[in-house]
Amino acid sequence: MVSVEEFRRSQRADGPATIMAIGKANPPNCVDQSTYPDYYFRVTNSEKTIIKKRYMFLTEEFLKENPNLATYDTPSLDVRQEILMVEIHKLGKEAALKAIKERGQAKSKITHLPGLKPRLHFANHVDGILVEAFKPLGISDWNSVFLKAHPGRPVIMDQVEATLGLNPEKLRASRHVLAEYGNMQSACVLFILDEMRKKSAKDGLETTGEWLEWGVFFGFGPGHTIETVVLHSFAAN
């Protein structure tokens, strides 16, 4: 009978092993690193975003001066806070001065600074909020008012459109601003209103509200809140 040791020896060669050849295998799909971001967004359907441009404070030069902002798992809160404390106020001042210049009157004549009223709801519940907001005016047909929504993402606007039974053109200004500027958080609302009034004037409509008298803008905020303001348009010219 052959022993176990003899059997094992018969399956092995004597002496050192020699590499006679090397075989390698990789998945067939190869993507160059320089084009990988575009590839990834395309194959994950992220490229379907309607956003065409984005405005931001960060530049390549600034990121080189503050490498923690672009390095994973490194502290960057102080730098971010410094940006917010300085730049947000600059943007606010710039926007306010533009509005005052357009109006052509003294700052002392400003009588109101608008505030927003939060509600604990989301896109699928926006109908109830509009009912509450327009009840004093006796309005319940949402296609009879100009309606401007904080864009957030296309899916949010799609949900609002479906929930309220809106005509496709109702959220045109919201979709336009999202495409041209991206999601600018609360500031989107003012960009949307500006787009609406300029388009109304360009098209020769009777009011700044797309020829409609009453309207509303609302924004979606933290905790699934909706902030709403009822608006009254005036003559475009």
UniProtKB/TrEMBL annotation:
<dbReference type="Pfam" id="PF02797">
    <property type="entry name" value="Chal_sti_synt_C"/>
</dbReference>
<protein>
    <recommendedName>
        <fullName>Chalcone synthase</fullName>
    </recommendedName>
</protein>
<dbReference type="InterPro" id="IPR001099">
    <property type="entry name" value="Chalcone/stilbene_synt_N"/>
</dbReference>
<dbReference type="InterPro" id="IPR016039">
    <property type="entry name" value="Thiolase-like"/>
</dbReference>
<dbReference type="Pfam" id="PF00195">
    <property type="entry name" value="Chal_sti_synt_N"/>
</dbReference>
<dbReference type="InterPro" id="IPR012328">
    <property type="entry name" value="Chalcone/stilbene_synt_C"/>
</dbReference>
<dbReference type="GO" id="GO:0016747">
    <property type="term" value="F:acyltransferase activity, transferring groups other than amino-acyl groups"/>
</dbReference>
<keyword id="KW-0012">Acyltransferase</keyword>
<dbReference type="InterPro" id="IPR011141">
    <property type="entry name" value="Polyketide_synthase_type-III"/>
</dbReference>
<comment type="similarity">
    <text>Belongs to the thiolase-like superfamily. Chalcone/stilbene synthases family.</text>
</comment>
<feature type="domain" description="Chalcone/stilbene synthase C-terminal">
    <location>
        <begin position="122"/>
        <end position="234"/>
    </location>
</feature>
<feature type="domain" description="Chalcone/stilbene synthase N-terminal">
    <location>
        <begin position="5"/>
        <end position="113"/>
    </location>
</feature>
<keyword id="KW-0808">Transferase</keyword>
<dbReference type="GO" id="GO:0030639">
    <property type="term" value="P:polyketide biosynthetic process"/>
</dbReference>
